[in-house]
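This is your field. Have a critical look at both lines of this record:
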Amino acid sequence: MPEPSIEIRGAHRDEVPVVQRLAHVIWHAHYPGIITVEQIDYMLARGYAVEALESFVGRPDRGLEMAWVDGEPAGFAAWYMIEGAVEGKLDKLYVLQSRQRLGLGRRLLRRVAQLARGAGATTLILNVNKNNAQAIRAYERYGFAIREAVVNDIGNGFAMDDYVMEKSLRTLPDLPALPADANMQR
């Protein structure tokens, strides 16, 4: 079987509905059992509204990156610089279950780390649900460590019970330099 064609690049505004569809499929496949379906729907409505996603597009202090496999959307990541800090925050990182094990998460993370470092970040942080063992293990493999535990009220009777994880961007030994090819350019 031939190797799939993989492209990682910044999303365009007209691709926001594609990210919304991916998020819906991925969240409803992954999060039941970790959080309720009601909380999934509430968080999707808030965090994946058109305006919320468009706020990541076309700015130097944030980004919405997409992974494509054989010309089909397969995953995405969003990040932003924390105002007044030298930290970038990985806000979203999701890959379709059917496209996992192709290195897309690693490639998206590498892309975000390099963009955040280019925007002045020396550390990349993220929040991950304390019960999301699969994601926690993956982030640990990529050099993230737990900084603290937090519980954030997100409204409507829901809370996010998370770990904040961090990774230094001063050196990226496990995230080698991106090749200078067209697939990785913005």
About this structure: DSSP finds five helices and seven strands in the chain. Residues 6-172 form a domain with the Aminopeptidase fold (CATH 3.40.630.30).
